[in-house]
Amino acid sequence: MNLTTAQEGVEYIIKSIVTDDEEMDAFLFSLGCYSGEPITVVRRVKGGCVVSIKDGRYTIDDLLAEAIEV
């Protein structure tokens, strides 16, 4: 499953990043979003969601959320 269907407030472990876009992959890696890392959907917002990765909170759009498999 990906982050678009993940429940709010539940911690998941990232299984993989599914994208052919190297720029998107590099951006997610810069946020600390890579396989084996915990991630939590803090809340849903229009067109995306707020996620907690490591010690940071980030707003990502649905396109990025779809690429993150948990």
List keywords for this structure.
about 40% strand; about 70 residues; single chain; alpha+beta; four-stranded antiparallel β-sheet
Report the structural category.
Answer: alpha+beta
> Given the C-alpha coordinates, what overall shape results?
globular
The percent range for strand residues is 35-45%
Biggest sheet: strand arrangement: 1-3-4-5
What series of H and E elements makes up the topology? EEHEEEHE
Which residues form runs of ≥5 with pLDDT under 50?
Answer: none
Number of strands: 6
Report the mean per-residue pLDDT as an integer: 95
| N-to-C CA distance | 6 Å
Q: Summarize the amount of helix as a percent range.
A: 10-25%
Number of helices in the DSSP assignment: 2
Rg measurement, Å = 11 Å
Summarize the biggest pleated sheet: 4 strands, antiparallel
Short description:
This protein is 21% helix and 39% strand.
Explain this structure.
It is a single chain. The chain is of the alpha+beta class and 70 residues long. The chain is built from two helices and six strands. Strand 3 and strand 4 form a beta hairpin. The model has no long low-confidence stretch (mean pLDDT 95).
Layout of secondary structure:
Layout lengths: L10 E3 L2 E2 L4 H9 L7 E8 L2 E6 L2 E6 H6 E2 L1
Antiparallel strand pairs: 1-3, 2-6, 3-4, 4-5
